[in-house]
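Most newcomers find our protein records easier to grasp once they have seen one. Nothing more is needed to start thinking about how sequence determines fold. Here is such a record, shown just as it appears in the course material:
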Amino acid sequence: MFKSTLTLILVLLVMLSLTGILEAQERKVVVMVSVDSLAAIIRDLSLDNIEIVTLIPEGAEPHNYQVSPETLEEARKADLFVFTGHLVFEKKLANLLPEIPVLQIDEKNYFGKYKLEILKLPDGRRNLHAYWLYPDNALAIAKAVVDKLIEIDPVNAEKYLKKLEEFKDKVRRIKQYITKITEFYGVKNMSVIITFPGEQYVAYTMGFTIAGMLSKGEGVFASGAELSEIKSKLEKGYAKIIMASDVSRMLNVGKFIEDLSRETKTPTAYVKIIGSKDLTYSDLLMYNIGVIIGAFSSTTMGKSAVQSRTILPTAIYALVASLVIVIVVESYLLYVRSKYR
């Protein structure tokens, strides 16, 4: 009788233990992120039990976003906030929900316990716009996120660490690809004009030199003298392309970009800074590489056609290759959106 009772107790304890493990494995961990391009890093780390929620709707301008009662109610479900540390609404949300842990850049440029490389604006201020688009910063952010996910969900610790190693490998290979493609097309150290501070990190990743900046932040436009110098650099071919973004399209500088491009006959590469809810971080980097090489290729083709009435085969190959990257990513986005309508 005693043995039977003991056996029954042991069986019940094992069942309770297994139930706890299964519940932990099935439990959704809700990670709420400010913008899609930052969420893209977490998509590369995500397991099936991770629910990623982007707070700023696609197509909205991040700097003007306000916390609505609906957003606040949704945010209460979060297990973790991953913020840029730059947007006004983030501070408000963190103050309203102090019980939810927050990962974001601090005043010493640390994200969690990992140091980031933060570039300077022309006036010496820290450029906190889209710093995660620099791959080394993305790796540091990924490490900080994995540390926190393991703390929240220790049962899946090994899986998170495996995802982190896979992410490191993806970023390493993309960095190698950037080195090869910039050397192959001779664009390393190429001078470009950027239209918004976040694009500085895309240019830095590509190894470009910034010859001018149209907008230095929200509502901070280049002076008349600076604009004149930028236009001169474009007309003389010192700066090869204008690098704009999905953010600058939304701002007052957006219309000026089109006029400047037309007047100076300089192509514009529109990179993604806000991103898209359907893109992983590696997708985002590859898309931006594609549009940049495509813009540069169009200048190469145009000049060679004027000078020799022929188009260099390498320029054609460059343009086709870059367009393929962009078309594949855009087609994927259209497919995913149609699938979930």
In short: Residues 2-167 form a domain with the Rossmann fold fold (CATH 3.40.50.1980). The CA atoms of residues 109 and 115 lie 6 Å apart. The first helix runs from residue 2 to 26.
